[in-house]
Design brief:
The protein is an alpha+beta fold. The protein folds into 2 domains: 277 residues, Rossmann fold (3-Layer(aba) Sandwich), CATH 3.40.50; 139 residues, Immunoglobulin-like (Sandwich). The strands form 6 sheets. The protein has a 5-stranded mixed beta sheet with strand order 10-9-8-11-12, with helices on both faces. The chain has a 4-stranded antiparallel beta sheet with strand order 4-13-1-15. Strands 3-2-14-16 form a 4-stranded antiparallel beta sheet. Strand 9 and strand 10 form a beta hairpin.
Length: 507
């Protein structure tokens, strides 16, 4: 699915195009359009579905095909850049009293993504949540220095009368700087891994909400290029699965990224005194602007540079989500080679400007059991609810035995009609996984539950699930206390995951 924004050169939206006016190319080859819709949305109320005190759900009410996600990036920003982002968002939210657009506030730091406040149409609620955020120092706050400089200043041949010795010393210095840069990349790789995991969890969190989602990411820069696969395949192969998962989740959720540049303005001629001699340009290239621009292009968003603030970036994102064309092309089952696929959307009118995602990534074959296990583990530890599968859970508390202080939590997973995949071509094959994890106030795991439902259903049972949905029971024992319990369901046939968490008191 390719959300596509079409405007005149003046910026005015073009609203009278038809399917035959478009052409979609994948790797330069024209593709058959399998879905086409002109989507018009307006800012409307959207909220979590209401539930009684003994129940929870990840479903939403009043879905309007439109949502804006704000992300404050503490991981890839210095303290000054974090403060700039904070002031920008606070100023926007304080003045946005008439905004009916559903807004969501997230943060990312060294511990990963954190849900500051779920989507709401009341900016004042987000202002209050934003004020509770605390800036944290990052790698960018560490002073630049090169501890090897003094060594080379004392090296025989340094600034000698011999050109050969000077050349040898210079070459040794370059090699040492390259080694030092690679050692510094170890911390960068950690930031890359955390950023990829955050992108994956954000995609999973909003996959179940239809339509195009805009994500305004206030940051000092991304630590990698989104479409440079070799960076993950060759530099550190451990990052490749994380890259594939992040890209798959962003695609599935139809999220367009709007990077908001909060990078510090610096004098490129300035050299920190702790460095000694300036480092050669090839050792430390500043790519943060280029990386943000590529992120925007690939996902169909727009780069918000230093000339824009949070308010103007939000307006651009909201306008893009209010009027766009949704175009679908078929996957090529014969082209299963892992790698990047370039996309291009054309309109047969030269005067129009088009903005859409410029590519997507095809992952290699995966072991189904390993993938299922990883999906469940990540969902159980995620601070956000996964919405690809809408689920509901009801629970009750009862005493285990007179001599036992623990109590039993009985719960029931509820999947609505049409949610569960039944493969009627394979004797109504069904494959579901259910799991739950309870954590106390300190985050320690205190109780678990897991169960797999696998088999072939009789036609009568399959028909009942299709019309009435599915319910599945579970339980765990916990001592009295306050807990956060997250419930997860994975449909192994569709490979979709749903989760919901709730605060539960065991008296």
């Amino acid at each position: 699915m390719i959300p596509t924004v079409v405007t005149e050169k003046s910026g005015k939206r073009v609203e009278d195009l038809r399917e035959e006016d478009f052409e979609v190319l994948r790797d330069g080859q024209v593709q058959k359009i399998g879905f086409f819709k002109h989507v018009l949305t307006k800012a409307e109320l959207m909220k979590a579905a209401a539930t009684p005190p003994d129940a929870a759900t990840n479903a939403v009410e009043g879905v309007n095909d439109r949502l804006t996600i704000f992300v404050v990036d503490f991981l890839n920003s210095s303290l000054n850049e974090q403060k700039t982002a904070y002031v920008q968002l606070l100023d926007f939210l304080t003045k946005a009293v008439d905004v009916r657009e559903p807004l969501c506030l997230l943060a990312i730091d060294a511990n990963g993504v954190e849900l500051i406040h779920d989507f709401t149409t009341d900016p004042a609620v987000l202002v209050k949540a934003l004020k509770n955020l605390k800036e944290t120092s990052s790698d960018k706050d560490k002073p630049q220095r090169n501890p090897d400089e003094e060594l080379f200043r004392l090296t025989q041949g340094w600034h000698s009368k011999s050109p050969t010795r000077n050349a040898a010393a210079l070459q040794a210095r370059i090699k040492a700087l390259d080694l030092y840069a690679k050692q510094a990349d170890i911390s960068k790789q950690e930031r890359v891994a955390i950023t990829l995991e955050a992108l994956r969890e954000i995609g999973e969190a909003f996959a179940g909400i239809p339509g195009r989602k805009s994500m305004v990411w206030a940051t000092g820069g991304f630590p990698f290029e989104i479409d440079r696969v070799s960076q993950f395949g060759y530099d550190d192969k451990r990052l490749m699965p994380a890259y594939e998962a992040a890209w798959r989740a962003l695609n599935h959720a139809n999220i367009a990224v709007y990077p908001l540049d909060e990078g510090e303005l610096v004098n490129p001629a300035y050299v920190n005194a702790g460095i000694g001699k300036p480092t050669p340009e090839h050792v430390a290239l500043d790519m943060h602007i280029a990386n943000m621009q590529r992120f925007a292009e690939v996902t169909g968003g727009k780069f918000c540079d230093r000339g824009e603030d949070a308010a103007s970036c939000f307006r651009e994102a909201a306008n893009d989500s209010s009027d766009y064309y949704l175009i679908g092309i078929y996957e090529n089952s014969e082209d299963s080679e892992p790698g990047w696929r370039k996309l291009q959307v054309k309109v047969h009118r030269a005067e129009y400007q088009i903005r859409s995602r410029t590519g997507y990534y095809v992952a290699g074959p995966q072991n189904d059991d390993e993938k299922a296990r990883e999906d469940m583990e990540v969902a159980l530890s995620s601070p956000v609810n996964y919405t690809a599968i809408p689920i509901g859970v009801r629970w009750s508390v009862s005493k285990v035995a007179a001599e036992d202080a623990k109590k039993r939590i009985d719960f029931m997973y509820v999947l609505a009609p049409g949610v569960t995949t039944l493969d009627d071509a394979d004797k109504n094959h069904i494959s579901l996984e259910f799991a739950a994890l309870a954590r106390d106030g300190k985050g320690r795991p205190m109780g678990t539950f897991s169960k797999v439902v696998e088999g072939h259903l009789a036609e009568e049972m399959a028909a009942k699930i299709r019309t009435e949905g599915l319910k599945f029971p579970g339980s765990m024992e916990l001592p009295p206390g306050e807990y956060t319990i997250i419930f997860v369901t994975r449909d192994n046939l569709s490979r979709l995951v749903g989760s919901v968490s709730s605060e539960i008191t065991v008296p």
